[in-house]
Specification:
- By secondary structure, this protein is an all-alpha fold.
- The chain is built from 30 helices and no strands.
- Helix 10 runs antiparallel to helix 11, helix 19 runs parallel beside helix 21 and helix 27 packs antiparallel against helix 28.
- The protein is elongated and about 105 Å long.
């Protein structure tokens, strides 16, 4: 068979005329020009797509019928064509379904080699090309790729091929996630196979992790595929999860600049100085290190990522903001959702990668503020707040400074957004930073952010949820300041800085508490907490005899006469009288 000239004349002609018009013998004719004519059949001008697919399938099926020995001996002729097809560098374009169909035919040719696959020309490149198709979303392609890898007799792969085939099948994926034991303490995976097998296993499961709302087992199946697979991968070691983060960040690899030798040396010297000041505890996992070579499943054209472990200052400098800003907004949202799921399910095992993750969030947040993208801004602040709340001690201080600088201009919006039941994103950020415990480098809430948070209490339509979140911040600061060092008479730990930051905004705090106590009959729980705060402030040496505290307490007693009706007296005697009594006692 030869390629037609594009006008369909050879397709209408008979077999004999088609062979003569092509200018030479074809495959199956035994001619000496077989290699060149086969290559010419694949590289055409621009024929109709259906003809290209049919011709490709016919050629490849013919190859699969040749004996394994002869096919191996002629591999120098057809292997380059296969590599060009897999690398998607062919001169024509095929529909995705047709490309997958032709790819399966190519893989069947490799399966026909059986044990002779080791004597094939350029076998290493063929193996890498086959592995690069393992992340196809089509389960049939994945299964064909795994079956093709069996003749290569890879020691780290063959003992687990049956399990991987069940993981590639949507019908058996759920049951195999339960049966496959990824925990290092288990002997299911040999220790000398983990370095190669676990990244390949992650590549097999990664197509089902791309969509956040994908179902486990097909449409209508219960449970989220991403959540189930991430729970399964949480049994891996922290250094093995770098392959997962690498796959998520691969489309954005062009946004990361390479590290120079000078910056690498400065980073090493800085890390040696920091290690003298703060030694990691036994519970803190060591920073993960990447393997020396590229992942076997990554396509050769993929842009390599730099090392995933590193200092936060380095990542802030190495992220190209211009390239990051060129990415579409939906990709930023997708990455923020992916990072949220990774941190939620993998937890403490991602601590070594937090400098990269938080630096990327900080840069996305800065772009969202610059472009006035409310969705990315809100989602980025909430995600950063949740990471701070759980792993804040492992986030470098320059990342905090970058985030605070980005959100500085939006602090007045807290009073506008506080009417929703869920607290504003900046209130959650303030709460997570204030509630940081000792154990890492301390981060201080900027005064403007704290002032805007306290002003929310005085907003006309502040929701109970937002008011409760702000009271949580104040209560935490007061509780920390109650831990007084007896010898020096000052708050212990980082609470001294928190109270020092709260004192300049005492008027905003007392005005907010006054507003809550004035309407204490509407939200009695908030009034109880506000009265507790006023009692603590009245007894605290930090505030002294502040007249605003007395005014806030008197506001509970200054009820208009029209409010003192029979129903109000009954409600007051049923429980609110306790608040009035406590206010009188505090005044006394």
């Amino acid at each position: 068979e030869q390629a037609d000239d594009g006008d369909g004349a050879s397709a209408r002609a008979g077999p004999r005329k088609r062979a003569r018009s092509s200018g030479g013998p074809g495959i199956g004719h035994g001619g000496r020009d077989r290699p060149s004519s086969f290559a010419a059949a694949l590289v055409t001008e621009d024929p109709p797509q259906a003809d290209v697919t049919a011709r490709l399938s016919h050629h490849i099926k013919t190859l699969a019928l040749v004996s394994a020995g002869l096919l191996t001996g002629q591999s120098r002729d057809w292997v380059p064509v296969f590599l060009r097809f897999v690398s998607e560098e062919v001169a024509y374009r095929l529909p995705l379904s047709a490309r997958r169909s032709v790819l399966r035919e190519w893989l069947k040719v490799l399966q026909a080699l059986k044990k002779n696959v080791k004597g094939m020309h350029d076998g290493d490149r063929v193996l890498a090309a086959v592995c690069s198709r393992i992340m196809d979303i089509d389960p049939l392609v994945q299964s064909t790729v795994l079956q093709t890898l069996r003749p290569f007799d890879l020691k780290w792969l063959n003992p687990y091929l049956d399990s991987l085939l069940r993981l590639a099948d949507n019908k058996t994926l759920r049951s195999e996630l339960t049966a496959f034991q990824l925990d290092p303490s288990s002997d299911f995976v040999q220790s000398d196979h983990r370095d190669a097998l676990v990244p390949f296993l992650i590549a097999v499961l990664f197509p089902r992790l791309r969509k956040r709302n994908g179902r486990l087992g097909g449409k209508g199946a219960p449970g989220s595929a991403r959540a189930a697979i991430l729970n399964f991968l949480s049994a891996a070691r922290p250094d093995e999860l770098g392959a997962l983060l690498e796959l998520f960040l691969l489309p954005m690899a062009g946004c990361f600049s390479r590290q120079s030798r000078q910056s690498r040396q400065s980073r090493q010297s800085r890390q040696s100085e920091q290690s003298k000041q703060w030694e990691p505890t036994e519970q803190t996992p060591a920073a993960p290190t990447e393997g020396a070579g590229r992942r076997i499943y990554l396509p050769g054209s993929a842009t390599p990522l730099p090392r995933l472990d590193g200092d936060g200052c380095e990542w802030l400098a190495r992220i190209d903001v211009r390239s990051l800003g060129a990415q579409p907004t939906n990709r930023h949202v997708g990455y923020l959702n992916a990072i949220d799921d990774l941190v939620s399910h993998l937890g403490f095992k991602l601590v070594g990668y937090l400098p990269l993750i938080t630096a990327l969030i900080a840069k996305m947040l800065g772009l969202a503020v610059e472009n006035d993208d409310r969705e990315v801004r809100t989602k980025g602040v909430r995600l950063f707040s949740s990471i701070v709340r759980s792993h804040g001690a492992h986030i470098p201080l320059p990342v905090y400074a970058e985030v605070f600088l980005s959100v500085e201009r939006f602090t007045p919006l807290i009073a506008v957004e506080c009417n929703a039941e869920r607290p504003p994103a900046l209130v959650e950020l303030c709460s997570s930073v204030v509630s940081l415990r000792d154990g890492g480098p301390p981060a201080t809430v900027p005064g403007d952010l704290l002032r805007g948070t306290l002003d929310a209490l005085s907003a006309p339509h502040c929701s109970p949820g937002c008011a409760a979140a702000v009271l949580d911040i104040v209560e935490f600061i007061i509780d920390e300041c109650n831990e007084v060092d007896v010898d020096v008479g000052i708050p212990a730990g980082g609470a001294r800085g928190a109270m020092a930051a709260l004192l300049p905004h005492a008027d905003a705090l007392l005005s907010g508490l006054d507003c809550i106590l004035t309407g204490f009959r509407k939200h009695r729980a908030l009034a109880v907490r506000s009265l507790n705060i006023l009692e603590a402030l009245a007894l605290s040496s930090f505030f002294g005899n502040n007249g605003r505290i007395i005014e806030a307490l008197l506001s509970m007693l200054s009820v208009p006469k029209r409010k003192w009706q029979s129903d109000e007296r009954r409600s007051l005697s049923s429980g609110n009288e306790v608040l009035v009594t406590r206010a009188c006692a505090c005044l006394a």
